[in-house]
Amino acid sequence: MRVALIVIYTARLEECRAFYTDLGLPLALERHGQGPEHYAAELDDGTVVELYPAGPRGETGRLRLGFTTVAAAGLEPGRHLLEDPDGRTVELVVMG
Known about the structure:
- The protein is mainly beta.
- The protein has one helix at residues 13-22; strands spanning 5-10, 28-30, 38-42, 48-53, 64-69, 78-83, 89-94.
- The protein is globular and about 45 Å long.
């Protein structure tokens, strides 16, 4: 088993898009049928990460995410604990 999809619902869609894009997540604007515009990225292992507007469902609450990348905007190699615009902890390991 592996993770195939992570969907984050947020009231701060553009702020979260900027945050995760700065970390290196290749988010692209999408829309499926009559659904809302959202952002999605497919990781190297096939996992899809999506950012959706919270809408009437609301935010999904607390969540801690972890990513490993070869480069992230202005971060030195090593382990970094960051906080996204909604207050979620994001652990980012930048490879040296």
